């Protein structure tokens, strides 16, 4: 599968020799690589799915299907609006067009904080996962901080290079991490599982249990980043088609793949024994399964691929953050310097450098405070980031029907009203589940959890106040915010 295309004479003028993004570079597969890599399928499965099995029992696969269906419904209205709003700002541009500038600027600040939270916290996971891998494979004990700092440099460099370079890297890493999971599934299916294959995971009696609510909370966060397809609009080939296709492929793939892999792991241990196996050794469940059904070498390879899965997720989020920062710098909200684009690579390189410096500051602050890289740096930083992105999805879903009621269009009522309203209801329930089960994600005290949850509305309100200040002090910036990049569907 090719991730780049040869430059044609017609496209030569679009090359970034004058500091422009590489327009017309990314195809459907490329964008899909970015958004699926951000979700880190192998890390989510090996690191989180066993906990979902402990909480939800053998009905856990259904939770991923339900989350996937909900987000597919959201994608209907989301991709429809992508044909009408051309901004690289995605969420904030859509929300502004539907709900107004104060809400849109509040959403913009929440997006910057949310995406940074989802990325920076993962540097803690990179450090611990690499240390675990080194110990498991070679008996080495290495500190987490140097690994995290080395990861910061690697990710900065990946973002500094051209977008097609990033697409190639993510394509290779994504194929590798999904491939090892497919290998596990194939081994289980070929050997018939622990006692024959069973579809009991889909039986209503196993799905409709109290623990399913907790599974759903984990499942929704497992899709984080899928909506970033729209951020790459300016670099996409035929964005009117490429963006919707990539969004639907990402959501459908993740939903079906997650459910299938969790189901196969349940078959690996058997319906009667898998919950106990996951309870006894959640972190080792997938490694034990692949060692049994494929071989010890595959378990060793999975250890290594978890590290590369984390790196792929970091690079995908880093690129998304850079383009959000670029869009906001062009709007006049962030410093203009962040809008500079590398004359050769066509990348928002100063936005990438600023993001790397921010990541460095946060990682070092946690390290100097003696914080645990997993339970504190990862979980405390990631959790509000994930909730923030879900809140943005909800705001976007609410904005879509309002927008289409105001403009002339030929879109159907299902796409412009029914789907987004349904998605808004489902996303409200999903956010409620995540907040209610927040202790499962953080393992922190009630006070810490309250602060982490409160950060999301707090950042949004701060953004609204910034908007009101802009309206008074910089009316020209306020007036043009998210206004120009719009178009009407004929």
UniProtKB/TrEMBL annotation:
Keyword Membrane assigned: yes
Q: Which UniProt keywords apply?
A: Membrane, Transmembrane, Transmembrane helix
Compositional bias, Basic and acidic residues, is annotated for 8-20
Protein topology in the membrane: Multi-pass membrane protein
Residue intervals of the Amino acid permease/ SLC12A domain: 31-472
Q: Which residues cross the membrane?
A: 31-55, 61-79, 91-115, 135-157, 169-190, 202-226, 246-266, 286-317, 349-371, 377-404, 416-436, 448-468
* Name under which the protein is recorded: APC family permease
């Amino acid at each position: 599968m090719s991730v780049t295309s040869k430059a044609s004479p017609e496209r030569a003028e679009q090359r970034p020799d004058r500091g422009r993004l590489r327009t017309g570079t990314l195809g459907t597969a490329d964008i899909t690589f970015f958004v699926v890599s951000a979700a880190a399928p192998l890390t989510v499965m090996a690191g989180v799915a066993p906990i979902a099995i402990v909480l939800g029992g053998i009905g856990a696969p259904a939770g991923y299907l339900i989350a996937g269906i909900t987000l597919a419904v959201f994608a209907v209205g989301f991709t429809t609006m992508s044909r009408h709003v051309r901004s690289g700002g995605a969420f904030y541009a859509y929300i502004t067009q539907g709900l107004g500038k104060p809400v849109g600027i509040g959403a913009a600040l929440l997006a910057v904080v949310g995406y940074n939270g989802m990325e920076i916290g993962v540097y803690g996971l990179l450090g611990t996962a690499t240390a675990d891998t080194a110990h498991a494979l070679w008996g080495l004990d290495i500190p987490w901080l140097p690994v995290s700092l080395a990861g910061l440099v690697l990710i900065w460099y990946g973002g500094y290079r051209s977008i097609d370079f990033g697409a190639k890297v993510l394509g290779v890493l994504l194929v590798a991490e999904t491939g090892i999971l497919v290998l596990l599934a194939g081994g289980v299916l070929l050997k018939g599982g622990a006692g024959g294959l069973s579809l009991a995971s889909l039986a209503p009696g196993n799905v409709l249990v109290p623990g399913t609510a907790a599974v759903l909370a984990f499942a929704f966060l497992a899709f984080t980043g899928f909506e970033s397809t729209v951020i790459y609009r300016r670099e996409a080939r035929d964005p009117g088609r490429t963006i919707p296709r990539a969004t639907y492929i990402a959501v459908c793939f993740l939903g079906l793949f997650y459910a299938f892999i969790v189901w196969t792991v349940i078959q690996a241990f058997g319906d009667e024994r898998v919950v106990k196996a996951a309870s006894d050794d959640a972190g080792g469940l997938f490694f034990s399964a692949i060692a049994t059904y494929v071989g010890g070498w595959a378990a060793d390879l999975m250890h290594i691929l978890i590290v590369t899965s984390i790196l792929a997720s970091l690079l995908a989020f880093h690129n998304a953050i850079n383009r959000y920062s670029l869009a906001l710098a062009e709007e006049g909200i962030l410093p203009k310097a962040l809008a500079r684009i590398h004359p050769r690579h066509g990348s928002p390189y100063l936005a990438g450098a600023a993001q790397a410096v921010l990541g460095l500051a946060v990682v070092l602050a946690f390290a100097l405070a003696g914080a645990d890289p997993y339970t504190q740096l990862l979980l405390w930083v990631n959790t509000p980031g994930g909730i923030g992105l879900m809140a943005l999805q909800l705001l976007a879903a609410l904005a879509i029907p309002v927008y289409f009621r105001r403009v002339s269009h030929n879109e159907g009522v299902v796409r412009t009203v029914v789907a987004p309203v349904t998605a808004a209801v489902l996303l409200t329930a999903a956010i409620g589940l995540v907040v209610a089960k927040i202790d499962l994600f953080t393992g922190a005290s009630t006070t810490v959890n309250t602060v982490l949850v409160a950060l999301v509305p707090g950042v949004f309100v701060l953004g609204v106040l910034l908007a009101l200040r802009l309206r008074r002090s910089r009316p020209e910036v306020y007036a043009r915010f998210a206004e120009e990049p719009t178009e009407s569907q004929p």
